[in-house]
Amino acid sequence: MLSVEGLRSKYGRIEVLHGIDLEVHSGEIVTVIGANGAGKTTLLRCLSGVQPASAGKVLFRGDDISRLPAHRRVGLGLSQSPEGRQIFTNLTVEENLRLGAYLFSDARVDKDMADAYAMFPVLREKRNLSAGGLSGGQQQMLAIARALMGRPNCLLLDEPSMGLAPILVDQILDVVRTLRGLDVTVLLVEQNAFAALSIADRAYVMETGRITMAGPAGELIADPRVREAYLGL
Ligand code: ATP
Fold first, then answer.
1. Residue span of the signal peptide, if any (predicted)?
2. Residue 129 has pLDDT above 90, yes or no
3. How is domain 2-84+152-229 classified at the architecture level of CATH?
4. Which residue's CA is the nearest one to ligand 1's atom 1?
């Protein structure tokens, strides 16, 4: 589904991704874990096309999308739900969802909206309220629901658990799990390594712009180096 080869990226003259290789297969939940500043957000931004890569390739469903602008990637089925949510707080919940479907004008938008409300009943209850009035967890649900309105084949999720109380983290993880049943492949970036490894099929560990470990999530969660560095065990 998604294949990254030798990806490098810079802010000004400082390179922060030093040649990333990773694969996400259709139907998988893959996570990239790593400390604050490791480059996880930059990686997702390069994949969604909002940050330029200075070298390397991104292949999506067999096509080289490395040079495509972000909106073209969304059109191909690759969507990002950004860190910090970035919902439009002065618009209503429903207006935010409609923006996620801006590529489409067909009758399926109403069905997608109904599906989103079935997945997140609290969003239906609050559909006419300003999104700025939602709690942190509800805003995160709205960000994911909005990304799903773009009918992605592959969803890039940046730190969906950030800033949430543990019970809400569990709810968000349940949502990510249900995406598997909807045929949405997920690349999940998380600092909450335990949460991410507990729902992922495979995982990559990122340290200062490089992938340093990779494997089935169940193996990494048991690996002494991961346990010490990322799980605090
Ligand atoms: P976090 O979880 O805190 O977002 P991260 O793993 O996602 O961390 P990035 O945000 O990708 O890491 O940052 C990688 C490196 O790039 C860090 O050293 C960071 O300071 C630097 N960086 C990030 N954004 C910028 C920017 N806009 N300009 C310059 N440097 C940046």
1. none
2. yes
3. 3-Layer(aba) Sandwich (3.40)
4. 36
